[in-house]
Protein backbone atom coordinates (compact mmCIF):
# COMPACT_ATOMS: atom_id res chain seq x y z
CA UNK A 1 0.00 0.00 0.00
CA UNK A 2 2.87 2.33 0.90
CA UNK A 3 4.67 1.55 -2.35
CA UNK A 4 1.46 2.25 -4.27
CA UNK A 5 1.07 5.60 -2.48
CA UNK A 6 4.68 6.44 -3.24
CA UNK A 7 4.14 5.59 -6.90
CA UNK A 8 1.01 7.76 -7.01
CA UNK A 9 3.00 10.61 -5.46
CA UNK A 10 5.79 10.31 -8.04
CA UNK A 11 3.18 10.18 -10.81
CA UNK A 12 1.47 13.34 -9.52
CA UNK A 13 4.80 15.12 -8.99
CA UNK A 14 5.89 14.35 -12.57
CA UNK A 15 2.51 15.51 -13.84
CA UNK A 16 2.74 18.83 -11.95
CA UNK A 17 6.35 19.31 -13.08
CA UNK A 18 5.34 18.92 -16.74
CA UNK A 19 2.49 21.41 -16.24
CA UNK A 20 4.96 23.86 -14.67
CA UNK A 21 7.25 23.45 -17.70
CA UNK A 22 4.30 24.22 -20.02
CA UNK A 23 3.47 27.29 -17.90
CA UNK A 24 7.09 28.52 -17.87
CA UNK A 25 7.77 28.03 -21.57
CA UNK A 26 5.97 31.17 -22.95
CA UNK A 27 8.11 33.35 -20.65
CA UNK A 28 11.35 31.67 -21.65
CA UNK A 29 10.56 32.02 -25.35
CA UNK A 30 9.39 35.62 -24.79
CA UNK A 31 12.83 36.75 -23.57
CA UNK A 32 14.88 34.81 -26.12
CA UNK A 33 12.43 34.58 -29.01
CA UNK A 34 15.09 34.80 -31.72
CA UNK A 35 16.86 31.60 -30.66
CA UNK A 36 13.74 29.64 -29.77
CA UNK A 37 12.77 26.79 -32.12
CA UNK A 38 9.10 27.10 -31.12
CA UNK A 39 8.22 30.74 -30.32
CA UNK A 40 4.90 31.16 -28.51
CA UNK A 41 3.37 34.64 -28.07
CA UNK A 42 3.24 35.74 -24.44
CA UNK A 43 -0.51 36.44 -24.54
CA UNK A 44 -1.09 32.68 -24.96
CA UNK A 45 -0.36 32.40 -21.21
CA UNK A 46 -3.90 33.77 -20.63
CA UNK A 47 -5.20 30.54 -22.18
CA UNK A 48 -2.44 28.19 -20.97
CA UNK A 49 -2.63 29.16 -17.26
CA UNK A 50 -6.37 28.32 -16.75
CA UNK A 51 -5.92 25.13 -18.79
CA UNK A 52 -3.06 24.07 -16.50
CA UNK A 53 -5.25 24.84 -13.47
CA UNK A 54 -8.04 22.71 -15.00
CA UNK A 55 -5.60 19.87 -15.68
CA UNK A 56 -4.56 19.90 -12.00
CA UNK A 57 -8.17 19.70 -10.81
CA UNK A 58 -9.08 16.94 -13.28
CA UNK A 59 -6.11 14.90 -12.02
CA UNK A 60 -6.72 15.39 -8.31
CA UNK A 61 -10.54 15.80 -8.24
CA UNK A 62 -10.53 17.65 -4.93
CA UNK A 63 -10.93 21.43 -5.06
CA UNK A 64 -9.00 22.33 -1.91
CA UNK A 65 -6.08 20.02 -2.68
CA UNK A 66 -5.92 21.07 -6.31
CA UNK A 67 -5.87 24.78 -5.38
CA UNK A 68 -2.81 24.10 -3.21
CA UNK A 69 -1.15 22.03 -5.95
CA UNK A 70 -1.91 24.79 -8.51
CA UNK A 71 -0.12 27.26 -6.25
CA UNK A 72 2.88 24.91 -6.07
CA UNK A 73 2.76 24.53 -9.88
CA UNK A 74 2.95 28.34 -10.33
CA UNK A 75 5.88 28.64 -7.92
CA UNK A 76 7.61 25.73 -9.67
CA UNK A 77 7.21 27.39 -13.08
CA UNK A 78 8.79 30.54 -11.66
CA UNK A 79 11.68 28.46 -10.33
CA UNK A 80 12.07 26.82 -13.78
CA UNK A 81 12.32 30.27 -15.43
CA UNK A 82 14.94 31.30 -12.85
CA UNK A 83 16.90 28.07 -13.26
CA UNK A 84 16.86 28.42 -17.05
CA UNK A 85 18.25 31.96 -17.11
CA UNK A 86 20.72 31.35 -14.27
CA UNK A 87 22.24 28.24 -15.88
CA UNK A 88 22.45 29.76 -19.37
CA UNK A 89 24.00 33.01 -18.11
CA UNK A 90 26.49 30.93 -16.08
CA UNK A 91 27.44 28.93 -19.20
CA UNK A 92 27.70 32.01 -21.42
CA UNK A 93 29.88 33.69 -18.77
CA UNK A 94 28.91 37.21 -19.89
CA UNK A 95 29.96 40.00 -17.53
CA UNK A 96 27.32 40.38 -14.79
CA UNK A 97 25.42 37.38 -16.24
CA UNK A 98 23.99 36.43 -12.83
CA UNK A 99 22.70 39.98 -12.38
CA UNK A 100 21.01 39.82 -15.79
CA UNK A 101 19.34 36.55 -14.72
CA UNK A 102 18.28 38.15 -11.41
CA UNK A 103 16.89 41.17 -13.28
CA UNK A 104 14.83 38.88 -15.54
CA UNK A 105 13.50 37.14 -12.42
CA UNK A 106 12.52 40.46 -10.85
CA UNK A 107 10.87 41.66 -14.06
CA UNK A 108 9.01 38.36 -14.44
CA UNK A 109 7.72 38.30 -10.86
CA UNK A 110 4.91 40.90 -11.25
CA UNK A 111 3.78 39.15 -14.43
CA UNK A 112 3.75 35.81 -12.63
CA UNK A 113 1.43 37.31 -10.03
CA UNK A 114 -1.51 37.35 -12.43
CA UNK A 115 -0.78 33.80 -13.55
CA UNK A 116 -1.71 32.59 -10.08
CA UNK A 117 -5.34 33.88 -10.12
CA UNK A 118 -5.73 32.69 -13.73
CA UNK A 119 -4.58 29.18 -12.82
CA UNK A 120 -6.59 29.08 -9.60
CA UNK A 121 -9.60 30.41 -11.56
CA UNK A 122 -9.21 27.67 -14.14
CA UNK A 123 -9.01 25.12 -11.35
CA UNK A 124 -12.11 26.49 -9.60
CA UNK A 125 -14.16 26.84 -12.84
CA UNK A 126 -13.42 23.22 -13.78
CA UNK A 127 -14.56 22.09 -10.34
CA UNK A 128 -17.94 23.80 -11.07
CA UNK A 129 -18.29 22.01 -14.42
CA UNK A 130 -16.99 18.63 -13.22
CA UNK A 131 -17.88 18.31 -9.53
CA UNK A 132 -16.34 15.45 -7.55
CA UNK B 1 -11.28 2.62 -12.25
CA UNK B 2 -12.86 5.32 -14.40
CA UNK B 3 -10.86 7.99 -12.59
CA UNK B 4 -7.65 6.01 -13.08
CA UNK B 5 -8.35 5.83 -16.83
CA UNK B 6 -9.00 9.57 -16.90
CA UNK B 7 -5.72 10.20 -15.07
CA UNK B 8 -3.82 8.12 -17.62
CA UNK B 9 -5.40 10.07 -20.53
CA UNK B 10 -4.56 13.37 -18.82
CA UNK B 11 -0.97 12.22 -18.20
CA UNK B 12 -0.57 11.25 -21.87
CA UNK B 13 -1.88 14.65 -23.07
CA UNK B 14 0.12 16.68 -20.52
CA UNK B 15 3.13 14.40 -21.11
CA UNK B 16 3.04 15.14 -24.83
CA UNK B 17 2.79 18.93 -24.49
CA UNK B 18 5.18 18.95 -21.52
CA UNK B 19 7.77 16.94 -23.45
CA UNK B 20 7.47 19.31 -26.44
CA UNK B 21 7.98 22.31 -24.11
CA UNK B 22 10.83 20.56 -22.28
CA UNK B 23 12.59 19.78 -25.55
CA UNK B 24 11.98 23.35 -26.83
CA UNK B 25 13.32 24.78 -23.54
CA UNK B 26 16.46 22.63 -23.80
CA UNK B 27 16.85 23.60 -27.46
CA UNK B 28 16.38 27.31 -26.65
CA UNK B 29 19.05 27.10 -23.92
CA UNK B 30 21.44 25.27 -26.25
CA UNK B 31 20.93 27.86 -29.02
CA UNK B 32 21.34 30.72 -26.55
CA UNK B 33 24.65 29.39 -25.19
CA UNK B 34 26.10 28.29 -28.54
CA UNK B 35 24.86 31.41 -30.37
CA UNK B 36 26.53 33.58 -27.76
CA UNK B 37 29.78 31.60 -28.09
CA UNK B 38 29.63 31.85 -31.89
CA UNK B 39 29.25 35.63 -31.77
CA UNK B 40 31.54 36.50 -28.87
CA UNK B 41 34.23 33.85 -28.90
CA UNK B 42 34.94 33.62 -32.64
CA UNK B 43 38.65 34.19 -33.20
CA UNK B 44 40.10 35.59 -36.42
CA UNK B 45 43.86 35.15 -36.81
CA UNK B 46 46.11 36.20 -39.65
CA UNK B 47 48.15 33.12 -40.58
CA UNK B 48 49.80 34.14 -43.84
CA UNK B 49 50.39 37.21 -46.02
CA UNK B 50 52.09 37.24 -49.40
CA UNK B 51 52.46 39.74 -52.20
CA UNK B 52 51.65 38.05 -55.51
CA UNK B 53 52.64 39.72 -58.74
CA UNK B 54 52.79 43.49 -58.72
CA UNK B 55 49.53 44.49 -57.11
CA UNK B 56 47.90 41.60 -55.26
CA UNK B 57 48.18 40.99 -51.53
CA UNK B 58 47.01 37.49 -50.57
CA UNK B 59 46.00 37.19 -46.93
CA UNK B 60 45.02 33.96 -45.19
CA UNK B 61 42.73 34.33 -42.18
CA UNK B 62 42.06 31.49 -39.79
CA UNK B 63 38.57 31.57 -38.31
CA UNK B 64 38.18 29.54 -35.12
CA UNK B 65 34.56 28.69 -34.37
CA UNK B 66 34.29 27.39 -30.80
CA UNK B 67 30.51 26.91 -30.90
CA UNK B 68 28.67 23.79 -32.05
CA UNK B 69 26.67 25.83 -34.57
CA UNK B 70 27.47 26.25 -38.26
CA UNK B 71 27.90 29.96 -38.86
CA UNK B 72 28.44 31.88 -42.09
CA UNK B 73 30.96 34.60 -42.91
CA UNK B 74 28.93 37.03 -45.03
CA UNK B 75 31.51 39.69 -45.67
CA UNK B 76 35.05 40.66 -44.71
CA UNK B 77 36.10 44.30 -44.92
CA UNK B 78 39.66 45.43 -44.12
CA UNK B 79 42.09 48.33 -44.37
CA UNK B 80 45.69 47.37 -45.14
CA UNK B 81 48.71 49.35 -43.98
CA UNK B 82 52.31 48.50 -44.99
CA UNK B 83 54.89 50.24 -42.81
CA UNK B 84 52.10 52.64 -41.79
CA UNK B 85 51.34 53.49 -45.44
CA UNK B 86 47.67 53.11 -46.34
CA UNK B 87 47.19 50.58 -49.13
CA UNK B 88 43.43 50.87 -49.42
CA UNK B 89 40.12 49.47 -48.24
CA UNK B 90 39.17 46.01 -49.46
CA UNK B 91 36.18 43.76 -49.05
CA UNK B 92 35.13 40.26 -49.91
CA UNK B 93 31.46 39.28 -50.10
CA UNK B 94 31.90 35.55 -50.59
CA UNK B 95 29.80 33.47 -48.18
CA UNK B 96 31.78 30.81 -46.32
CA UNK B 97 30.32 28.36 -43.81
CA UNK B 98 32.34 27.89 -40.64
CA UNK B 99 31.99 24.47 -39.03
CA UNK B 100 33.19 23.86 -35.48
CA UNK B 101 36.99 24.27 -35.39
CA UNK B 102 39.38 26.09 -37.71
CA UNK B 103 38.59 27.27 -41.24
CA UNK B 104 41.05 29.11 -43.47
CA UNK B 105 39.75 31.89 -45.71
CA UNK B 106 41.97 33.35 -48.42
CA UNK B 107 41.45 37.04 -49.05
CA UNK B 108 42.83 38.60 -52.24
CA UNK B 109 43.33 42.36 -52.15
CA UNK B 110 44.13 44.01 -55.45
CA UNK B 111 45.77 47.36 -54.73
CA UNK B 112 44.34 50.22 -56.80
CA UNK B 113 46.59 52.04 -59.29
CA UNK B 114 46.37 55.11 -57.04
CA UNK B 115 48.06 53.27 -54.12
CA UNK B 116 50.31 51.06 -56.24
CA UNK B 117 53.34 53.41 -56.20
CA UNK B 118 53.26 53.43 -52.39
CA UNK B 119 53.25 49.62 -52.32
CA UNK B 120 56.12 49.44 -54.77
CA UNK B 121 58.08 51.98 -52.75
CA UNK B 122 57.55 50.05 -49.52
CA UNK B 123 58.60 46.75 -51.13
CA UNK B 124 61.60 48.36 -52.87
CA UNK B 125 62.94 50.38 -49.95
CA UNK B 126 62.35 48.18 -46.90
CA UNK B 127 63.99 44.94 -45.91
CA UNK B 128 61.26 44.25 -43.40
CA UNK B 129 57.63 45.19 -43.96
CA UNK B 130 55.22 45.48 -41.08
CA UNK B 131 51.67 44.90 -42.29
CA UNK B 132 48.75 46.07 -40.24
CA UNK B 133 45.30 44.68 -41.10
CA UNK B 134 42.34 46.43 -39.51
CA UNK B 135 38.66 45.78 -40.16
CA UNK B 136 35.89 43.32 -39.41
CA UNK B 137 33.90 40.32 -40.56
CA UNK B 138 30.11 40.12 -40.71
CA UNK B 139 29.01 36.79 -39.25
CA UNK B 140 25.55 35.33 -39.82
CA UNK B 141 24.12 33.19 -37.02
CA UNK B 142 21.57 30.48 -37.88
CA UNK B 143 18.66 32.32 -36.19
CA UNK B 144 16.40 34.43 -38.41
CA UNK B 145 19.51 35.64 -40.33
CA UNK B 146 20.83 37.40 -37.20
CA UNK B 147 24.23 38.99 -37.84
CA UNK B 148 27.11 40.14 -35.69
CA UNK B 149 30.41 41.89 -36.49
CA UNK B 150 33.73 40.49 -35.30
CA UNK B 151 36.64 42.91 -35.47
CA UNK B 152 39.99 42.13 -37.09
CA UNK B 153 43.19 43.79 -35.86
CA UNK B 154 46.25 41.81 -36.89
CA UNK B 155 49.91 42.48 -37.52
CA UNK B 156 52.23 40.53 -39.86
CA UNK B 157 55.91 41.04 -40.52
CA UNK B 158 57.37 39.95 -43.85
CA UNK B 159 61.01 40.10 -44.91
CATH superfamily of chain B: Immunoglobulins
Strand content of chain B: over 45%
CATH topology (level 3) name of chain B: Immunoglobulin-like
Total strand count of chain A, please? 0
Radius of gyration of chain A: 16 Å
Largest sheet of chain B: 5 strands, antiparallel
Total beta-strand segments of chain B: 8
User: How far is it from the N-terminal to the C-terminal residue of chain B, by CA?
Assistant: 88 Å
Work out the radius of gyration of chain B.
25 Å
Largest interface pair: A-B, 28 and 29 residues
Number of domains of chain B: 1
Order of helices and strands of chain A: HHHHH
Number of helices of chain B: 2
Helix content of chain A: over 70%
Structural class of chain A: mainly alpha
Q: Give the overall pLDDT of chain B as a whole number.
A: 90
Identify the overall geometry of chain A. Answer: globular
Mean pLDDT of chain A: 87
Distance, first to last CA of chain A = 24 Å
**Global structural class of chain B:** alpha+beta
Low-confidence stretches of chain B: none
Write up this protein.
The complex is a heterodimer of chains A (132) and B (159). Chain A has 132 residues and is mostly helical. Chain A has one domain. Chain A contains 5 helices and no strands. Chain A is globular and about 50 Å long. With 159 residues, chain B is of the alpha+beta class. Chain B contains 2 helices and 8 strands; from the N terminus they run H-E-E-E-E-E-E-H-E-E. In chain B, strands 3, 4, 5, 7 and 8 form a 5-stranded antiparallel β-sheet that branches. In chain B, strands 1-2-6 form a 3-stranded antiparallel β-sheet, with no helix packed on it. Chain B is rod-shaped, with a radius of gyration of 25 Å. Classes of the chains: A mainly alpha (132), B alpha+beta (159). Chains A and B meet through helix 1, helix 2 and helix 3 of A and helix 1 of B.
